[in-house]
Amino acid sequence: MQYDPIKRVLGEAFNKTPFLRKLFYNLLDLLLLRTWHIHKELRAWAKGKRQQPVQILDAGSGFGQYSYYLSGMGANWRILAVDVKDEQIADCSNFFQKIGRHNVMFRKEDLVTYREPQAFDLVLSVDVMEHILEDVEVFKNFHASLRPGGMVLISTPSDQGGSDVHGDDESSFIEEHVRDGYNIKEIQEKLKSAGFSRTEAHYSYGAPGKISWRLSMKYPILMLGASKLFFIILPFYYLIVYPFCLLLNWLDTNGKHPTGTGLIVKAWK
After folding, report:
1. Which of 70, 133, 128 is nearest to 96 (CA)?
2. What residues are paired with 59 via a beta bridge?
3. DSSP string, 199-249
4. What does the pLDDT profile of the chain (269 residues) look like in tens digits?
5. Distance between CA atoms of 122 and 232, rounded to whole angstroms?
6. Hey, which of 38, 53, 245, 267 would disulfide with 199, CB 3.0 to 4.6 Å?
7. How is residue 111 annotated by DSSP?
8. Which residues contact 31 (CB under 8 A, 6 or more apart)?
9. Are strands 262-268 and 120-126 parallel, antiparallel or unpaired?
10. Where are the beta strands (DSSP E) in the chain?
């Protein structure tokens, strides 16, 4: 399935007013399990830094929901959000200007070539690396762009069923992915080869998360891919399934998983 056309439809539906855009962000925060994990990691990283001047790179900013979250965490924080898609950059720039979030700047950049030496304290990359073939080059650029002691935080599918792939004869649920998922040791070794001195990684989307993902994301995406008419049905669908997903997301975010279809990876310069 191609995910980008569905994302484009969602963007068009929620870009009509700033209120709808904020509602969209809130819905993503509730529905996307990866957001629960990323917010938890960002809150931990932010301890003692909320009043400090901090420079952050949102590497592959997409809809801009993580830049929106970060821009409200620290009064002295400045975020550069980059993406390769013109329409995403234009939509996000327009929205952030309308709501007066002037501590965020959006710019079109290719992560394979973009680097800004020792400019950032944090690099955030959420569900981006599975779309980029030249991953080591990107990791090298992240390392070069971080200040000493800076951290990169990555969310990406694992090779334990990430992208809903469970065997050699299966392909990714999302056609835009160039890899089905990372081996947990592989991605840490690649980060170290790019120059990072220390890495940590753990699984997300364990047993509770796998169920939640199917109920809250996979099945709705399949329905929307079949027909836009399912937009009418979705609110009623979520009224039924979301209480279960809420509990499952909490269990996944606050538990430790021996395996999982997602990875949360941190590396320090």
Report:
1. 70
2. 82
3. EEEEEES-HHHHHHHIIIIIHHHHHHHH-TTHHHHHHHHHHHHHHHHHHHH
4. 444 555 566 666 677 789 999 998 998 898 899 999 999 999 999 999 999 999 999 999 999 999 999 999 998 999 999 999 998 899 999 999 999 999 999 999 999 999 999 999 999 999 999 999 999 999 999 999 999 999 999 999 999 986 554 444 444 445 567 788 999 999 999 999 999 999 999 999 999 999 999 998 888 878 877 777 888 888 899 999 999 999 999 999 999 999 999 999 999 99
5. 40
6. 267
7. T
8. 216, 217, 238, 242, 245
9. unpaired
10. 54-59, 77-83, 104-108, 120-126, 146-157, 198-204, 262-268
Whole-angstrom CA distances from 130 to 30, 118, 145, 213, 236 are: 23, 25, 21, 18, 32
Largest Cα–Cα separation, the chain: 51
3-state secondary structure of 174: coil
Strands 262-268 and 198-204: antiparallel
Whole-number CA gyration radius for the chain: 18
Question: What does the CA dihedral 226, 230, 235, 240 come to, rounded to 10 degrees?
Answer: -60
**Residue 120 β-bridge partners:** 146
CA angle 177-37-112, nearest 5°?
40
